[in-house]
Amino acid sequence: MLLSIGLPLIIEKFVLIVIVVMSSLVIAMYATFAERKVAAIMQDRRGPNRAGPFGLLQPLADGLKLFFKEEIIPNLSSKLLFILGPCLAMLTAMMTGAVIPWGDKVHFFGRDISLQIADVNIGILYVFGVVSLGVYGIMIGSWASNNKFSLMGGLRAASQIISYELAMGIALIALLMTTGTLSLKEIVQQQQEHWYSWNIIKQPLGFLIFLICAFAECNRTPFDLPEAENELIGGYHTEYSSMKLGFYLFAEYINMFLSSSVMVSLFFGGYDIPFINDASLAENIGTNWVALIHTAVFLFKAACFLFLFMWVRWTIPRFRYDQLMNLGWKVLIPLALINMLATGAFILLQQNNWHF
Amino acid sequence: MQALTNRAQQVERKPMSLLERAYLPAIFRGMAITFGHMFKKRPTINYPEVRRPFSPVFRGLHILNRDEEGRENCTACGLCAVACPAEAITMEAAERSAGEEKLYREEKYAAKYEINMLRCIFCGLCEEACPKDAIYLSETFAPANFQRKGFIYGKDDLLIPHPITEPEAHAKAKGGRVSLK
User: H or E segment at A143?
Assistant: First the structure.
């Protein structure tokens, strides 16, 4: 039977979904804490250190504060859309996690359970689709606020994400030409053999473009024009308060974590442990332990990317709008096109045994 | 125009080279700087737990001094009020009656002595003007208050604790600056 969906499969997937959603929420929560800590350390300050040991309960305190704040819906806003905005932002942020392979597989109750919610064969296209939907949350919310600054922020977000998605897509095409598959699981498995089979070695320029575009997609500095607090008093979330504001801010951190995960899967071998043969390790210590190490390695790589996001944020000032557009259209897209053509030519030559 | 100093530098307005326009080298340099800052010593102190010592010339809240037997030094001569550039000090004098020799050192004393801490500029001229060593600026500063009248400090706020009945509080209020004569 082609599609056999039994109760165990549903339970297994349900548990996995709950774990992935919960852990990405917790990671996003602590990413806000890490952001403040990293900012503090880079500016020779101490950062939050009052709530709990080392300030570890700070995200809880922040969340509680947001929950207890008064919820204000402006009189002249369109109420439904105003509420829909943050919901969409949060929803699309969480959806990306479905296709990311967090580890190989675990063996429980006589079943091999894949540590990926859905091994879709167009995985990376799904990620792209969901990420492009993400801008709707911002656009709808900003338009529904009925505020000029919010609308400006929404417009900026829309044009910025569209501009950078092009370069990102073209950079990705070059990568997909080398891997020959769209499934994230297969892309990760191709990178398992050696540390030098990681795609970053094959596609350094593609990775750089992808990274820059990922910064732009997440609305992070230096591309945080949609929420430029000193020009647009917060941009698209100017009118938002309480947990609706919290959803927007939270969605940004979840996006950051998940785009880090995507970058790890695409370019840095996913859950591959560098310098170690995973297959022989699995024979020695058992599948479940290897899966645990895999997930830990994956999260560590993602954490490095999260740190990079924060590091860049506290280093670089924001681009001007014309600089942003120049960079996107006049630099990144031509570069990505050149990268794609060069990769294509290389592959063709290789297939033709290096004869023209 | 003649230059006042030789520190002025001509600003270069050359168009950026390709390397400069590529942003990335400059970004990496900036990131190296911020990364270096992660290992620098932080000048912050954890305030309520750790307190930075005041300098010996710090001028904080006023205290009205007593002598070693616990008698008030102030004779309400008014020199501090005259010296005060902010006109923050007011007082009312009274004559010591019989039986009050343990409370006041001399025949005249301040029945009322008020300093408006919202006016005070903590210049310390009252301390310099006082011929009786009666007023000193201590090493604490005025705490916040919700109302204006809370900032008008009367005698009960200003007087130093009694040196014999409350020696510890007295020593604490005295700090390092006040000399008892």
Answer: helix A123-144
A54 and B CB contact within 8 Å: no
For residue A143, is it within any domain? Answer: yes
Asked if A164 and A220 touch (Cβ cutoff 8 Å), the reply is: no
Q: Is residue A10 part of a domain?
A: no
Is A316 an interface residue toward B (CB < 8 Å)? yes
CATH architecture of B62-174: 2-Layer Sandwich (3.30)
pLDDT of residue A2: 53
This prediction's pTM: 0.77
pLDDT score for B100: 83
Minimum-distance CB partner of B34 among A46, A314, A327: A314
Q: How confident is the model over B149-167, as pLDDT tens digits?
A: 888 898 888 888 887 888 7
| CA pair distance B150, A79, nearest whole angstrom | 47
% of chain A surpassing 70 pLDDT: 97
Q: Cα(first)–Cα(last) distance of chain B, in Å? A: 62
Contact with chain B for residue A44, Cβ under 8 A:
yes
Cβ-Cβ contacts under 8 Å between A and B: the total is 33
**Is residue A297 included in any domain, yes or no?**
yes
- Where residue A4 falls among pLDDT bands split at 50, 70, 90? low
pLDDT at B96: 87
Q: Which two tokens stand for residue A247?
A: 């959803």
Q: What is the mean pLDDT of residues A269-297?
A: 77
Residues spanned by the domain of A286: 70-351
CA distance A196 to A212: 23
Interatomic CA distance for residues B7 and A4, integer angstroms: 80
Contact B37 A42 (CB under 8 A): yes
Q: How far is B44 from chain A (nearest CA, A)?
A: 6
Instruction: Report the DSSP pairing between strands B108-116 and B89-95.
Output: antiparallel
Residues of chain B with Cβ-Cβ distance to A45 below 8 Å are 42, 44
How many separate domains does chain A show?
A: 1
What was the pLDDT predicted at A246?
86
Rounded Cα distance, A326 and A323, in Å: 5
Question: Smallest CA–CA separation between A42 and chain B, in Å?
Answer: 5
pLDDT higher at A280 or A83: A83
Contact A315 B34 (CB under 8 A): yes
Q: Which chain B residues contact residue A42 at CB under 8 A?
A: 34-35, 37-38
Give the integer Cα–Cα distance in Å for B147 and B128: 30
Q: Where are the domains of chain B?
A: 62-174
The CA angle A92-A93-A96, to the nearest 5 degrees, is 85
Instruction: Calculate how close chain A gets to B17, using CA atoms only, in Å.
Output: 15
Which of B18, B20, B23, B49 to mutate to test binding with chain A, by most A CBs within 10 Å of its CB?
B23
